[in-house]
What does this fold into?
Amino acid sequence: MSNENTTVDPEAKATPEPSADHVDKQPSAVELEPTPAKVRVTGTVYSKTDGAREQLAGALVFAKAKDGTGDIPRPAETGEDGTYELALAPGEWEITAWHKDRATPEAVTRTFEGNADGLDFDLLPGVPGFTVAGTVVWQDTKERIGGALVDATQRTARGAVTERRRAWTNKDGSFRFGDLVKPGRWKIVVLHAKALPRHEPRQVTIVRNESNLVLETWRRQGVADKRLGLIFFAALCVALVVIVALYVVAHQFLAVDLGPEGSVIVSMVNRAEEHIAATATVTTTSELSATVAGIRSSWEVISSTSPVLSMQDRQLVSAVIGDLEQSLEENRLEEARVHLDSLRHVVEPLLRGFFWARDPWRLLEVLWWALAGVLCNLIITTGGYLRWHRFYREGVFLHVAQLLTVPLLALVFVFLASNVGVKIEIAGTGEVTLDLSDTRILVAVSFLIGSRPWAIWRYMQETAGKITGQQD
It folds into this structure.
């Protein structure tokens, strides 16, 4: 591989590009910190045989962050001229190239503060991929485990398996995949008769030969109790039905505000009525005309942007506003007063949303929906434990702990996200910004957080470590 022609230009402008693979980051594809400007890394991949060097099309160039996050953006594919371009965050990276018909070189380590050109790779004849070997140990004692199955898969953004490698551990707990492993992100699951099933696979990024990959798994401990599991499962189902019923009742009997748009229109209607009451002559005042014009303008904005209003609703309100304007043009103020009252009675039920959109009620939405997410997650996982006769008495304590703590963790997450924003990257759609001021987005995010208790817990631990400077 040729490295001597690598150049770094600290003055060049960074070119930010989204990376769809960030959706796999913890917690599940969400970033709260401002994303730094990306640096552009370019180069050429060559096919080198007996001294002959040709540009190689269709090669993939992978990068893995060296900051401990294991971040791996979408690989860059070389064009017909063998060139590639990566967009990376500033920092230290491991980079390698891969092609299905050539041997895969070891990754090179580079630190990028600005754009870098000329990072080239020479791919020699041979079988592509890396050797991967390691050990499997118990998480608590670090004792090696023999007879465990190590199952590694590469998947598409939609979850379809594209590559799979399997190996059994020897008596000393060591394993080695028989086939070479393609670079990139792999999801690895360890299966053993005495181990607890893991809910989330271990994610490992491969960009070089691995000879000491250590995989930990949890020892299955406790007493299986199917009867207690059935009782707990039934209690979870009843609890979910109860909180849904309480939620609906609370939103029916406790006032739900109109939201900013509805409040503006109703306040304008009230102001127009005050103008009519203060008008001593049959001539409309300029303030009254301006207020009604403001009602028309505000409704047009709402009508064009609201996703919940039907065409009939839009036409009904527009007709009432039209009658109001006609009455004012003909100086029939009493009739205009009637139209204003009608407008209020029509607009209020249309714009009064189902969700609480103002504090402190808005915070209750977060707690309620996060709790619903936890319950749904526990119902599904408990059903799985019962299906496989693996519900243990001791697990009830962990489930109750999740019910009590995850809604509060979701509330803290919302506090943070409301100030710095949330961006996620979804395969096929690019980067999406979540606006938590929209209550519908807020409750959806709260539910998703509740459904992934371990992910939000890890995120909170990592964030706390960054704040205190005591990262593991």
Remarks:
- Residues 164 and 411 are 39 Å apart (CA to CA).
- Confidence is low (pLDDT under 50) at residues 1-33.
- The chain has four domains: 7-123, 132-217, 226-249+357-468, 259-351.
